[in-house]
Write a structure and sequence with these properties.
single chain; mainly alpha; 3 helices
Amino acid sequence: MSLKTICRKVCLEHQIKKYENYLLEEGLRVANSREMDFIHLPKNEAGQTDISKILSLGAEDNADIGRRYLVYKRILERLQRH
């Protein structure tokens, strides 16, 4: 893997984490305002808590950030495959 690819990967990981944190905060804010309860979130295959429902709530009012988050995740997945 070239240095350019490694730098791109690190940058994408940073951006993804930044957008994920923002969407989580917004999703929790929306859930709180709607009085939703997320005590029992499902687990994924790796045994981690599935936060996709909270992320989607955060993306409802922040579609541009949600779109960037998804696009950057897909680009990173493509980079990791090669």
